Amino acid sequence: MQKPSLPKGTRDFGPLQMARRNFILDTIKDTFQLFGYNQIETPAMENLSTLTGKYGDEGDQLLFKILNSGDFLKNVGPEDLQNGANATLSKVSEKGLRYDLTVPFARFVVMNRNELTFPFKRFQIQPVWRADRPQKGRYREFYQCDADVVGTDSLVCEAEIVLMIRRVFSKLNIADYDIKINNRKILTGISEVIGEAGKEGPLCVAIDKLDKIGWEKVQEELAQRDFQNESIQKLSPLINFTGGVQEKLDFLKNFLASSEVGLQGVEELKDTFGILQAMGEDLSHVELDMVLARGLSYYTGAIFEVKVNHVSIGSVSGGGRYDNLTGVFGMDGVSGVGFSFGVDRIYDVMEELNIFPQSTAQGTQVLLTHFDQKGYRYALSILTRLRSAGIVSEIYPDQAKMKKQLDYASKNQIQFAAICGDQEIESQTIALKNLETGVQENLGVEDAIKTVLEFIPQKG
Amino acid sequence: MQKPSLPKGTRDFGPLQMARRNFILDTIKDTFQLFGYNQIETPAMENLSTLTGKYGDEGDQLLFKILNSGDFLKNVGPEDLQNGANATLSKVSEKGLRYDLTVPFARFVVMNRNELTFPFKRFQIQPVWRADRPQKGRYREFYQCDADVVGTDSLVCEAEIVLMIRRVFSKLNIADYDIKINNRKILTGISEVIGEAGKEGPLCVAIDKLDKIGWEKVQEELAQRDFQNESIQKLSPLINFTGGVQEKLDFLKNFLASSEVGLQGVEELKDTFGILQAMGEDLSHVELDMVLARGLSYYTGAIFEVKVNHVSIGSVSGGGRYDNLTGVFGMDGVSGVGFSFGVDRIYDVMEELNIFPQSTAQGTQVLLTHFDQKGYRYALSILTRLRSAGIVSEIYPDQAKMKKQLDYASKNQIQFAAICGDQEIESQTIALKNLETGVQENLGVEDAIKTVLEFIPQKG
């Protein structure tokens, strides 16, 4: 008999994990909806022609491919065995698993361009799959939660991203975090004014390591990447600058004075903050990070990253503005802005901070218990009344010792046991025992319902 | 430039479809939870060793297999090209996509046997994949919603399945349906008393066609399947019997008098109905179908099927009791009972009956509109107040003609437009226009909030 196992890098989620994950996902979903985003879903499988070439060579390797149905070898000949896997792939597979939610969304927009009303605000919460080497915190199947607006350049979208992040984190009770924000145009401007126009790519790769390796080492790396010494020195004031959002905006206005695109980036950030102000919102948790880059090739305007402080996993959310989401599918001019919550990371952060609310652990609230067939019948008569009152309840289904029934309740973290014995039947009551405090009361059913509802939020 | 497409048999779900699907899924989920079921999730990918051999030869062919990562050809030689796809499969693939939720659940129970408390009540709502030939109403990716209790023989589980089905259908406003119920032991008993012991399989296959081809043809088919003429004639009273649940139970008691197992099946049904009665519940929508079979080889006790009347798709839910869920993974003695809602079918039924509530179409409830930059700023100042009141609201993000803004609202089925012009700014009001009725009122923000909340359920 085989001993079953899970494919590496994949996970089951049991009841407690699911309750906690749902708490996070429902909070995110609720926030997206309040801001007018509409949910869509796309299939797990996409044609390989949709997926390949969108994530770089490394990404193509990490795609999970589906073997063609039926005789998958029918087009494969001996010469293919010589040519190798990459050359033969298209003969045995034409579908792959979704690698992210962005490319499927772009495909969706293109295929539904005539039915959609722009600007189109969508969110999408679905798993993605990557054949990455599994390691702690990195899985081969994980959920992404993306929200994007396409078909508008309005900076109100950027401002609302800040607001949505703050709402989600506030509801999740995560207090100590920074929303780092920057603009691709500022990065372009920086490379211009230091005399290395067009090299914002390598510039950002190097500067990204500032926290880890320090300014000395970053300078060495820049030199290795053919940055002139003079250019590197010009960066110094930027690297060493400290201050709040307003000071940084003032600094950048000076620093980027000779770069038109750079100043435009500063202006966009200023306008975004202005919109927040017009909405009666402050800049709490917002940090202007003048060298934040994140997937630079992709973004053309605002860039976001959210870091939770004092936890081992830092970055839990990110995104930015792009100019041409759907160009690769032949539909130009669709700009937009989007971002993504990393659910698995938020889960780990909340576990580390031990801030999951007690109530997320709760399934059943009342277990009806009984000593014999008569008590069982009596308990059955009460069950429907509890449920009609919105109380999640069940009856212990078998005839068993009371200890076993109470064990079942405590292992399942059920708060109340309602004991149905001869005395209770006679007086038409139940003995309601709070398994947390040990307090037991004899109550009529209506009073018992009131007591339970006072303790715990109702459902249904 | 490529024109993107979807793999055949798969679908995107846009905003309206998602809202409707969520209405169905949330109703089912809410009901499962009220009855004390806990949600779990398992990975999309399972090892092929977990999946193969569980669904028959045909099922094995319909599994979607994942190509091994990296050089998937490395173990394939010229001789494999001779041997063909089936023989070579294990050299290029070791994982497949989930085909149903039952086998992954069995694997989950076995792998977590030491952590779980039995009886274990779980529900699971996830997509499954089958390489079936796509046709109307049959997809290659579709959702299953399963609830199972394992580790108890108690018939309270069967009774609660009836109650959960009735609750879900009542909340979905599906009124005309039958919960057909039978018991495998009755089918065994029937084959015994007609003198064809052990042949309930072919018996049920033939009788299953009764509605379609009539009793004459069924008799022909039974004869072809080597049933004695005398046996077939003994079936006649059963086939021709009409009556309510109680009459059928009485009839079966007589008909199966010589079959111990048959009488046991009758007793189980009687007890199940007795439990419903003890719970203060009636037998509405319950129909005892003495020849209902459904996946016979699998079930050992109760068998359920739900049919909606007067619609093209009939069967929308089914399930039953099984004796040995996990035996195939080396863990014996885990009996249980489960059933499954077919979400796609329920969706189609509700669409055909045109009973989706209007409110499920609703995303954004209020769109703030504006004529110029000044109005835009004013609208921004109101947006947060609307959202804080739980009203799903957005601002039209760009400067655009009022007609375009109102078009956006009506295409997105937004009920209210809040127009922010010079007059409104001066009087600190908004012109709240109900886009359904055309009625427009000038209101202070607090009054506008009240008006909107009276019309539509709040969120957030």
**CATH architecture classification name of the largest domain in chain A:** 2-Layer Sandwich
Distance between the termini of chain A: 42 Å
Residue-averaged pLDDT of chain A: 93
At the first level of CATH, what is the class of the largest domain in chain A? Answer: Alpha Beta
Domain count of chain A: the total is 3
| Biggest sheet details of chain A | 8 strands, mixed
Question: Helix segment count of chain A?
Answer: 18
Query: What is the 3D form of chain A?
Result: globular
Per DSSP, what share of the residues of chain A sits in E-state strands of 2 or more residues? 15-25%
Write the CATH homologous superfamily of the largest domain in chain A. Bira Bifunctional Protein, Domain 2
- Stated plainly, the CATH topology of the largest domain in chain A is called BirA Bifunctional Protein, domain 2
Features of the shown structure:
homodimer, 460 residues, alpha+beta, BirA Bifunctional Protein, domain 2, Rossmann fold, 8-stranded mixed β-sheet, 5-stranded mixed β-sheet, 18 helices, globular
Explained architecture:
Two copies of one chain form a homodimer. With 460 residues, chain A is α+β, with helices and mostly antiparallel strands. Chain A has 18 helices and 16 strands. In chain A, the strands form three sheets. An eight-stranded mixed beta sheet of chain A has the order 1-5-6-11-10-9-7-8. In chain A, helix 1 (15-34) packs antiparallel against helix 7, helix 1 crosses helix 14 (343-353) and helix 7 (156-171) crosses helix 13. Chain A is globular. The model of chain A has no long low-confidence stretch (mean pLDDT 93). Chains A and B meet through helix 1, strand 1, strand 2, strand 3 and helix 4 of A and helix 1, strand 1, strand 2, strand 3 and helix 4 of B. Chains A, B: One of its GO terms (molecular function) is ATP binding. Chains A, B: Its EC number is 6.1.1.21. Chains A, B: This is Histidine--tRNA ligase. Chains A, B: One of its GO terms (biological process) is histidyl-tRNA aminoacylation.
